[in-house]
Specification:
This protein is an alpha+beta fold. The protein has four helices and seven strands. It has one domain. Helix 1 packs antiparallel against helix 2. The chain binds zinc ion (ZN) (2 copies). This is Putative metal-binding, possibly nucleic acid-binding protein.
Length: about 210
């Protein structure tokens, strides 16, 4: 069985978890886990992610709060140009001390576990929760990196907010020349122009 510390996404929490009220700065780089997005928009597996923030200990677990910076590749949905830039995603997640809760539960008999489950479910509705390693010494951030980035990927990425897109007639990139347009050379309009000129002449005479 692989040891938790062998995971490239393991963060040692031995120090900060030793007692409540401590905080540790996190500034680490991780390879992007697989499964973030697709060819159109996503993060390539193995690309470098940065996680900056802090890990703080409270009585029943650890709170990780920080910002993930990821090199997202995407395609502008209007002009189809490739976009590649870093995206920042803020995360706040909770790592409960499950192993300690379990051992407390067994001491109190078999109802202990149910109570713990109730407490956890009631307290942490809005926060994402992830398990610590079985020995409680490591937080593995693989799943949280993936979840946070997948959730944050925009459905309709744009190269810039006011991207002008492509000309509907020839596919010209309108961002290169906002004045780009097509002169109407349709024969039917020539007839109309002639008619208009004719009418104007007659009006002059009248
Ligand atoms: Zn665009
Ligand atoms: Zn055009």
């Amino acid at each position: 069985m692989p040891r938790p510390e062998d995971s490239p996404w393991a963060i040692s929490v031995m120090q900060v978890a030793s007692r409540p009220g401590q905080s540790e700065v996190i500034d680490s780089k991780f390879p992007a886990p697989s499964g973030i997005g697709d060819n159109i928009i996503g993060v390539d597996e193995g690309d470098e992610l940065t996680l900056k923030g802090s890990m703080s200990s409270i009585v029943d677990g650890l709170i990780l709060s920080g910002t993930i910076t990821a090199p997202v590749h995407a395609e502008c949905t209007r002009c189809l140009k490739p976009i590649s830039r870093d995206w920042d995603v803020n995360v706040t997640v909770f790592f409960p001390y499950e192993s300690k809760a379990d051992s407390a539960g067994t001491k109190n008999g078999k109802t202990g576990k149910d109570e713990d489950a109730d407490i956890v479910a009631g307290e942490e509705e809005s926060e994402d929760m992830y398990p610590l390693s079985a020995d409680g010494n490591f937080a593995d951030v693989e799943a949280l990196l993936r979840d946070a980035l997948v959730e944050a990927l925009p459905l309709q990425p744009l190269c810039r907010e006011d991207c002008l897109g492509l000309c509907s007639q020839c596919g010209f990139d309108m961002n290169d020349d906002p004045d780009h347009h097509h002169d109407v050379t349709d024969g039917r309009f020539d007839v109309l122009a002639q008619l208009k000129a004719q009418l104007e002449q007659e009006q002059h005479k009248a």
